[in-house]
Amino acid sequence: MADKGKSSGRGDKRRRYRSDGTPIWGKRAIDGPGIWVTCVKGKEKQTVGELYDLFEALAEEMWPAQAHDGSDNDEMNDKADDLEAQIAKEMAAMKKPRKEQIFANCQTNTPCVIFISCKPPVDPIALVIKYVQDVVETGITRTKYTQRLTPVSGSCVANLPEICGLFKKVILPFFLDAGDKKYRYKIELRIRNHHTVSRDPLLAELAALVPEGHKVDLKSPEVFILVELFKSVCGMSVVKDYYRLQKFNVMEIANTKQEGADFTEGEGRVS
């Protein structure tokens, strides 16, 4: 029995490494593609609620087939006079698996900081840009306490090897797919509540991973590599028009569009 226990222990250790030799770290509370959000202090709970409403509405608009998949409950009232048929339908509905949530709030345990994870078919970048562009066009937010939204295409443990691995997975394909097009780019790195990885060495490591021909441009970049380090988690994505869209700060965009109107600090412009 003891030998089996030891063998199992060794097996567990082996399973903590991928086939390429890189370590597999423990499961994180914050994981996967998603959206980092900053909000008014003390209004985190309300912000999560308004984000669920907003994101679900946008998802239904942008990915309608998936958002409405399996929603045939309206037919349950048909043939109400046929009791047996009605009972059969209700039993079938009860046996159906519950529709999987595509958005989930991940606890950050930090004031003003929220992370909402996204599942397919949702693309967090497309979702954020759609919402931000709507605010730019109308000057009206559909949220009251939400400030800046930062989409990330993936997340990893915040150490240098894992960050470089994530970069190769979610950022590098953008440049490889560009063909002959050469981009001017800037790495927008934001570090919060993290003291392990230093800014300058990380920027140097990531810049070295960008294929030759693409150039760093701090003044007028065409694309932005967003890198978020928060506690033990790192997320990243590549976007365009980041400065034109005021760094995806919808409260700031609305304030700029409606300058001069009465506005209570921390309450945004809501439709």
From TrEMBL:
One of its GO terms (biological process) is tRNA modification. Keywords: RNA-binding. SMART domains: THUMP (SM00981). InterPro entries: THUMP_dom, THUMPD1-like. Pfam families: THUMP (PF02926). Residues 134-240 form the THUMP domain. Residues 1-11 have a biased composition (Basic and acidic residues). One of its GO terms (molecular function) is RNA binding. Residues 1-23 are annotated as: Disordered. PANTHER family: THUMP DOMAIN CONTAINING PROTEIN 1-RELATED (PTHR13452), THUMP DOMAIN-CONTAINING PROTEIN 1 (PTHR13452:SF10). This is THUMP domain-containing protein.
